[in-house]
């Protein structure tokens, strides 16, 4: 989460930095109260399920969990019938359900529901999952749809293989968290039933206090047929539960919480993907400049912005010596520039639009995939330069004024479309040295003529090697780790090249 830096926010600038506390997280007493409300909803679902079941066997009812592909009551009934079908007992009339064990089952169902959401959405906190489940009336699939809609996940496809794999893993984790004695079997049973939900829903809706025994037999037969099917259910079979959840979603209340904490983590993960793409495209020798000033904000798409900022900074402020080149890029250094870019993006938007808060800025960045060109832009070049200056200060750019002038002048540059075409012509491949040189020539020559920045920059005071490595690698311990990992990576690459050469030789001889 980001908080306003009052000291750096002068005039119209709104500079954001790391927050010492997550003000969006509720207090512990509020979390306990929300968990109690969710537990009460789960208790009502168990009461309704018990009222519809004839065979109220203790061993079966205490194996019914709220997690599944249908509504909570149907999930409880389905898992109870599955347990009854696997281990039938004599029907001497309904018996009383043991209260303490049923309360324990309700608590385990709550743990399973929370585990389902946090596994399906890795950046979701437990207390956030509880809030989504409260909105969904403890329905796991409806809660998942609310999260998807709130986060604006565009790449989610209900019937895709990725969605099926994520759902399978979430079901397994939920059953384990609920301490079900057969978690894998129950999760697999739900996945196999996904292709037959059109038959399962009428069966479960027919379960009433005096329902005939053949419903249990029909349900057991359906489970066996789907479980022993020679071919696995198609990926498209999982569309049905999502469609059913979409109908229930229309009646669910709107989200009133601001979950900026988890959204920030989603945004940082998105930024991380853009930096990996930029690293793959930049040639050797530009990694140090990327870690120093390769931010993802600018007038182009995020990857192009990273590359342009990196090339411009290295060309305008070249390194003092070649000994600073990196052989590998550590995760810690990459996370640092990613976090700085995040604060820069938020500061840019909040400076451009003074009535925008951090939560709205984060939502906007997620909806537009961090593409600032999708904004309406500032009313003047001066306001845009101020916004870029706020972003550069928030991102700890070594030369914030110079970067702000450079980015705001890209619109006035007639060569900017040519730069973008050079970046896009490379596609997903690494940029050649000739292409990088052309971009460098176009950017720097035009920038110096427009902004009138002197060509000879004052060289900063040199720093000792010890101080340099302490700043970039967080001390000697990180430096030793850096060297050890670098040696292992190089050794693995040598083995890989050797294996490829052996295979190539063998194929040539054959």
Automatic annotation (TrEMBL):
Residue ranges of domain PIR2-like helical in the record: 41-146, 269-375
Pfam family, one: PIR2-like_helical
Native species: Aegilops tauschii subsp. strangulata
Signal peptide (UniProt feature, chain positions): none
Top-level taxonomic group: Eukaryota
InterPro entries, A to Z: PIR2-like_helical
Protein name listed in UniProt: PIR2-like helical domain-containing protein
């Amino acid at each position: 989460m980001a908080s306003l830096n009052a000291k750096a926010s002068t005039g119209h600038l709104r500079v954001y930095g790391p927050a010492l506390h997550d003000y969006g997280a509720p207090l512990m007493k509020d979390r306990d109260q929300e968990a109690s409300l969710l537990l009460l909803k789960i208790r009502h679902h168990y009461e309704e399920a018990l009222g519809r079941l004839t065979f109220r066997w203790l061993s079966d009812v205490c194996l019914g969990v709220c997690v599944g592909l249908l509504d909570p009551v149907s999930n409880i009934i389905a898992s109870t019938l599955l347990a009854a079908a696997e281990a039938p007992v004599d029907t001497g009339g309904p018996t009383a359900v043991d209260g303490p064990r049923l309360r324990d089952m309700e608590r385990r169902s709550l743990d399973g529901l929370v585990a389902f959401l946090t596994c399906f959405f890795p950046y979701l906190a437990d207390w956030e999952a509880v809030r989504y489940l409260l909105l969904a009336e403890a329905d796991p699939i409806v809660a998942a749809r609310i999260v998807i809609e709130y986060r604006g996940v565009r790449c989610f496809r209900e019937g895709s293989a990725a969605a099926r794999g994520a759902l399978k893993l979430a079901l397994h984790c939920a059953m384990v968290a609920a301490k079900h004695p057969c978690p894998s079997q129950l999760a697999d049973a739900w996945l196999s039933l996904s292709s037959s939900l059109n038959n399962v829903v009428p069966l479960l809706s027919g379960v009433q206090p005096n329902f005939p025994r053949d419903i249990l037999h029909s349900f057991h037969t359906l489970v066996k047929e789907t479980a022993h099917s020679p071919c696995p259910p198609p990926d498209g079979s999982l569309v049905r539960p999502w469609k059913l959840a979409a109908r229930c979603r229309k009646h669910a209340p709107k989200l009133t919480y601001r979950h900026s904490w988890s959204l920030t983590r989603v945004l940082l993960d998105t930024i991380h993907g853009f930096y990996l793409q930029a690293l793959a495209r930049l040639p050797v020798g530009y990694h140090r400049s990327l870690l120093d000033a390769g931010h993802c904000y600018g007038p182009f798409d995020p990857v192009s912005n990273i590359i342009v900022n990196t090339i411009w900074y290295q060309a305008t402020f070249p390194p003092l010596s070649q000994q600073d080149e990196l052989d590998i890029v550590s995760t810690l250094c990459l996370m640092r520039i990613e976090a700085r870019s995040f604060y820069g993006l938020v500061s840019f938007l909040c400076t451009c639009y003074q009535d925008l808060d951090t939560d709205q800025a984060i939502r906007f960045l997620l909806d537009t995939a961090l593409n600032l060109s999708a904004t309406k832009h500032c009313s003047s070049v001066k306001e845009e330069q101020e916004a870029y200056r706020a972003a550069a200060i928030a991102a700890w750019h070594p030369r914030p004024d110079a970067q702000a002038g450079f980015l705001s002048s890209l619109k006035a540059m007639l060569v900017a479309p040519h730069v973008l075409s050079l970046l896009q012509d490379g596609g997903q491949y690494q940029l050649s040295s000739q292409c990088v040189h052309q971009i460098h020539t176009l950017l720097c020559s035009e920038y110096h003529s427009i902004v009138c920045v002197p060509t000879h920059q004052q060289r900063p005071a040199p720093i000792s090697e010890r101080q340099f490595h302490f700043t970039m690698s967080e001390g000697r311990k990180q430096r030793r780790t850096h060297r050890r990992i670098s040696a292992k990576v190089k050794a693995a690459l040598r083995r890989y090249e050797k294996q490829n050469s052996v295979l190539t030789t063998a194929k040539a001889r054959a």
